[in-house]
Specification:
Structural class: alpha/beta
Mean pLDDT: 89
Strand content: 5-15%
Largest sheet: 8 strands, parallel, barrel
CATH class: Alpha Beta
Low-confidence stretches: 1-30, 337-345
Strand order of the largest sheet: 3-4-5-8-9-10-11-12
CATH architecture: Alpha-Beta Barrel
C-alpha cells in the first residue's frame, strides 16, 4: 500500500499540552543481554479465554483509510499478512465501522458489515493465520465525532449520549433514544458474530479516545439523567450492554477484548477515573458483562497512572479486574504519538522498562504501533534479539512504506 498514513482518525488534535512525565531512556544501541532478555520474555505464549497467542507482541489498531467503499482489498491483506509472518502474535485491526449509519465519517475506513466488506476481511484473517499470527477486528462507532453530512452515509445524523461534542455545552447532534441504543448494541453484536463466522480469533470493542462508547463513560459528554447517565457506574451501562450482547452472540471461548482510555481525542488531560477506587467501580460492571481482556490505551506506557504506585493503566486494570491486559503507548520509541501528527520522528528507545514490567506480570501483552508501521519486521527483529537493526520512526517515510 502506498499513500499517506493516518495514525489516528481526523479529529485527533495536532497538538496538546503534554503531562509532566519521565521520559523513556533514549539509546542508540541495546546491550546483548537486554536483547536476549527481550527475546525470552516476549516470545512466551499467553492465552485470552480460548485463544492462545504465540507471543506477547500485539499490533495496535491504527486508522489507515485505505479501504475504498469500506472494503479491505488485497493491499490490506498484504499489510496485515506481512506483519503476522514477521512475528506479531496478535493483530488488532484498524477501527472498523459497525453496521449503524451514524458509525463513521469516511468511505475509506473499512466496515465490518456487508457482503463485500466481510469477504475482504475473511481474506485478511486467512493471510494472518497463514503467517502464524492471530487477529481480532476492532469494532467501532465514532458517535459525536461525526459531522453532519459526512460519508459513508451522508444522511445519518451525529448521535451520542447527550448530543454533545467534546468541550461543548450545547448539543450539535442527537441524544440517543432507547431505539438508537438498542440498534447500536445490536450492530456490535452482529459484527462480532460475523467476525467469528469468517474466521477471526476474537473481537475488540473500541471504548476509548472519546468515541461513542467512551462518550457514555465520560461525564464531559454524558449528561443523561436516565439509567445510562449520572454516576460513574450508571455511565458504564451502555458499554456493559454492548459487551453482554457480544458475549451472548459469540461462542463461550471466543475472546472479547475491551479497549478504553482516560484521554480523549481532543483532550489529553481528560480522565474517567481519578483514583483506583473510581476505576474499579467503572471496570467491574464491564468486566462482569463478559470481557476476557482489557486493552488500556495510554500515550506513554511508562507513566504511573495514579500517585503512590508505579503501575501503569494496564497494570491497575489487571490488578482491579483480574483480567489479562494489553499495554500500549510509544513502545520502542522515545516520543508519544501526538508528535507524529506534526511530522516529528522518534528515536529507538530501550525496552528495559517495559521488560521489567512484563517480567513482574504487570500486564500480559504489549501493543506496538508506530514502530511496526516503520518496520513490518520489527517483531521478528526484537524476538531474535537483533536490536541493532531497528530503525528510528520517520513519519515522512511512511508515504512509501506498506
Amino acid at each position: 500500500m502506498r499513500g499517506t498514513f493516518q495514525s489516528a482518525p481526523p479529529h485527533c488534535p495536532q497538538s496538546a499540552p503534554p503531562k509532566a512525565h519521565r521520559r523513556s531512556p533514549h539509546v542508540t544501541a541495546t546491550p546483548v543481554e537486554s536483547a536476549s532478555r527481550a527475546a525470552r520474555l516476549l516470545a512466551r505464549p499467553t492465552t485470552i479465554n480460548g485463544l492462545t497467542v504465540p507471543n506477547r507482541i500485539a499490533m495496535a489498531p491504527m486508522t489507515r483509510m485505505f479501504s475504498p467503499g469500506g472494503i479491505p482489498g488485497e493491499d490490506v491483506v498484504s499489510y496485515y499478512g506481512r506483519r503476522a509472518a514477521a512475528g506479531v502474535g496478535l493483530i488488532v485491526t484498524e477501527g472498523t465501522y459497525v453496521g449503524h449509519d451514524s458509525a463513521g465519517q469516511s468511505d475509506s475506513v473499512p466496515r465490518f458489515h456487508g457482503e463485500e466488506q466481510l469477504a475482504g476481511w475473511a481474506k485478511v484473517a486467512e493471510a494472518v493465520h497463514a503467517g502464524g499470527g492471530t487477529i481480532v477486528p476492532q469494532l467501532w462507532h465514532i458517535g459525536m465525532v461525526r459531522e453532519a453530512g459526512e460519508p459513508p452515509f451522508t444522511d445519518a445524523p451525529p448521535v451520542g449520549p447527550s448530543g454533545l461534542r467534546l468541550g461543548e455545552d450545547e448539543p450539535t447532534g442527537r441524544a440517543m433514544t432507547q431505539r438508537d441504543l438498542d440498534d447500536v448494541i445490536g450492530a456490535f453484536a452482529e459484527s462480532a458474530a460475523a467476525a467469528e463466522r469468517i474466521g477471526f480469533d476474537g473481537v475488540e470493542i473500541h471504548g476509548a479516545h472519546g468515541y461513542l462508547v467512551d462518550q457514555f463513560l465520560w461525564s464531559g459528554t454524558n449528561r443523561r439523567t436516565d439509567a445510562y447517565g449520572g454516576d460513574p457506574v450508571s455511565r458504564t451501562r451502555f458499554a456493559a450492554e454492548i459487551v453482554a450482547a457480544v458475549r451472548e452472540t459469540v461462542s463461550p471461548d471466543f475472546p472479547v477484548i475491551f479497549r478504553y482510555s482516560q484521554w480523549k481525542g481532543g483532550d489529553y488531560t481528560a480522565r474517567i477515573a481519578e483514583n483506583p477506587g473510581e476505576l474499579e467501580a467503572i471496570l467491574t460492571p464491564i468486566a462482569s458483562a463478559g470481557v476476557d481482556a482489557f486493552h488500556a490505551s495510554t500515550r506513554r506506557y511508562w507513566l504511573p497512572e495514579f500517585d503512590d504506585s508505579d503501575l501503569n493503566l494496564a497494570g491497575w486494570t489487571k490488578k482491579l479486574t483480574g483480567r489479562p491486559t494489553i499495554t500500549v503507548g510509544s513502545v520502542g520509541l522515545d516520543g508519544e504519538f501526538g508528535a507524529a501528527f506534526r511530522g516529528e520522528g522518534a528515536e529507538v528507545s530501550s525496552l528495559d522498562n517495559l521488560l521489567d514490567r512484563l517480567e513482574r506480570d504487570e500486564f500480559d501483552l504489549v501493543a506496538v504501533g508506530r514502530a511496526l508501521l516503520q518496520d513490518p519486521r520489527w517483531a521478528e527483529k526484537v524476538l531474535a534479539g537483533r536490536f541493532d537493526e531497528l530503525a528510528a520512526y520517520d513519519a515522512a517515510s511512511l508515504k512509501t512504506l506498506s
